[in-house]
Amino acid sequence: MTFNQKVKYDVIENIAVITLNSAETLNALDSELINDLNHVLNQVENDLEVKIVVLTGKGKAFSAGGNVKSMGDRTTLETIEIMSQATKVITRITEMKKIFISVINGYAMGAGLSLALASDIILAQKNAKFGLSFINVGLVPDCGLLHFLPKIVGPWKAKELIFSGAIVTAAEAYQYGIVNRLVEEDQALSEGLDYAKKLAAGPLQAMTFVKTIIENSQYLDLNGTIQYENFAQAVLQQTTDHKEGLLAFREKRAPNFIGK
Amino acid sequence: MQDLIFNVENNIARIILNRPDSLNAFSSEMISLWIHALETIRDSDDIRVAVLSGNGRGFCAGGDIKSMAKGEGFLKSEGQEDLTSTALARKNQLWKKVQRIPLLLQEIDKPVIAVLHGVAFGAGFDMSLACDIRIAAETTKISESYIKAGIVPGDGAAYFLPRMVGVDQALDLLWTGRVFTAKEAKELGLVTHVVEDHLLNEFVENYVEKLVNGPQETIRFTKRAVYQGLDINLRTSLDMISSAMGIVTELEDFKEGVNAVVEKRKPNFS
């Protein structure tokens, strides 16, 4: 796999920071950037030390989404190829046993919004904007947006936003439940890292189970989810963090988790 | 020699399990190399078909029973990593290692062929269930052997078997752990082809050759559609496949295929 330097990858202790690093293209999800994202996700997935992943963009945009400039020139086959590479990024984020935090530093348009929605937690700068811009070029939303958005805002609101090609402000996005938390301008990344550090100091094994059970329970009924919970509970019972949690409760102090 | 050999030649990727002295039972090294090989198959444009086989007297014996007997877990391991002290550590041997293989296989839309011979037991056999096609030598002995060691089927059998053979047959195989022949596996629908031992390689090579020379996009679209079909309703499946038809009929391979049929010659796909 070639690497085009359109994505930056740093690891700080057990937190990885993935930065979309192509400010001049507003971090458009072109084939080079998508290739790099897949490349970096391989690294994240195989680095057992990394527990939390912060995903952000450099410059004015988190990501401007699909590369509109190159769209008209593509053959059907090329479209299928680039779509399948891009959607691989989405499914890998939702399936990976690590917590992803998207830090929205500016515009998140089209598939850029889909990418944000694939993560577990979304923080956004107060001046961030989200664009359901697909309809403006006569296309359907992609990269899982049609899966994610109706779950958050409900099918009716989702259709309204998509049909109108809405631009959603950070405040509206917060109100709709698309964004978990708003942060001051230019502090997005530091807030994101603080948030990641707080999560990283938690009982990570339990949090990983929460992510995977919520993700997979969409395909289960109540009984299936309950059995999933029961097994997880029995397995987690032997962890150091569970024992520490119990001890801290008895000793009336804050627990000191180690993620094991 | 490494516990797994991986090579790519003429658009064909080959994964060969290589612990012949232990009937290719799993080791930590084998699983890591296996994961890496599947990532390459998933990501490489050069690869059209993947073939999984075992070196030596058998395909794969699954978890390493000697390692289990020593209390060291399902995988032979040299490292210091704690694989056994808690339920979570034991779960993670599967969750974070062994089970990445069926999950990675699910991400690959190219054909993956498993070639069975000798012995295919427990998780060894179940790795082949996560592949698309299983071709077995006539004398292959197969078993869902977990129950004998008092363990549950940890590598996908509880998912794949009821889908392939129905609930009763799945439970029968898992509760008895009986050894069955390749022929019986074929009758049950668990292997795709059974071939006389001395013809196995030739059969596999011919099979792979056809896929390598076939219309690649159509082969991949078909694979995706068939697997998606397991989880969606008829209306959705038909809606999706008609979009796929709209796309493949634009490709050169479609023109070439139709011309070849009309001209009664072999197609020459791109």
Query: Using CB atoms under 8 Å apart, which protein chain pair has the greatest interface?
Result: A-B, 21 and 16 residues
What would CATH call the homologous superfamily of the largest domain in chain B? 2-enoyl-CoA Hydratase, Chain A, domain 1
List SSEs of chain B in N-to-C order: EEHEHHHEEHEEHHEHEHHHH
The CATH topology of the largest domain in chain B is given as 2-enoyl-CoA Hydratase, Chain A, domain 1
Looking at how many chains there are and whether they match, the oligomeric state comes to heterodimer
Number of helices of chain A: 11
Provide the CATH top-level class of the largest domain in chain A.
Alpha Beta
Strand coverage percent of chain A: 15-25%
CATH class of the largest domain in chain B: Alpha Beta
* CATH homologous superfamily annotation of the largest domain in chain A: 2-enoyl-CoA Hydratase, Chain A, domain 1
What is the strand arrangement across the widest sheet of chain A?
1-2-3-5-7-10
Number of helices of chain B: 12
Shape of chain A: globular
How would a crystallographer describe the biggest sheet of chain A? 6 strands, mixed
Number of strands of chain B: 9
User: Which architecture of the largest domain in chain B per CATH?
Assistant: Alpha-Beta Complex
Structural class of chain B: alpha/beta
Shape of chain B: globular
Unreliable segments of chain B (pLDDT under 50, ≥5 consecutive)?
Answer: none
Supply the helix-strand structural class of chain A.
alpha/beta
Observed structural traits:
heterodimer, A: 260 residues, alpha/beta, 2-enoyl-CoA Hydratase, Chain A, domain 1, 2 domains, 6-stranded mixed beta sheet, 4-stranded mixed beta sheet, 11 helices, 10 strands, globular, B: 270 residues, Lyase 2-enoyl-coa Hydratase, Chain  A, domain 2, 3-stranded mixed beta sheet, 12 helices, 47% helix
Overview of the molecule:
The complex is a heterodimer of chains A (260) and B (270). With 260 residues, chain A is an alpha/beta fold. Chain A has two domains: 7-200, 2-enoyl-CoA Hydratase, Chain A, domain 1; 204-250. In chain A, 48% of the residues lie in helices and 17% in strands. In chain A, the strands form two sheets. Chain A has a six-stranded mixed beta sheet, sandwiched between helices. Chain A has a four-stranded mixed beta sheet with strand order 4-6-8-9. Chain A is globular. Chain B is α/β, with parallel strands linked by helices and 270 residues long. Chain B has two domains: 4-212, Alpha-Beta Complex (2-enoyl-CoA Hydratase, Chain A, domain 1); 216-262, Orthogonal Bundle (Lyase 2-enoyl-coa Hydratase, Chain  A, domain 2), CATH 1.10.12. In chain B, 47% of the residues lie in helices and 15% in strands. Chain B contains twelve helices and nine strands. Chain B has helices spanning 28-43, 65-69, 87-98, 100-107, 122-129, 157-165, 167-176, 182-188, 200-212, 216-229, 234-248, 252-262, and strands at 4-9, 12-17, 49-54, 112-116, 119-121, 133-137, 141-143, 179-181, 193-195. In chain B, the strands form two sheets. A six-stranded mixed beta sheet of chain B has the order 1-2-3-4-6-9, with helices on both faces. In chain B, strands 5-7-8 form a three-stranded mixed beta sheet. The model of chain B has no long low-confidence stretch (mean pLDDT 95). The A-B interface holds A 1, 38, 42, 46, 48, 75-77, 80, 84, 88, 91, 95, 97, 205, 234-239 and B 35, 39, 43, 86-88, 91, 95-96, 103, 107, 109, 217, 247, 250-251.
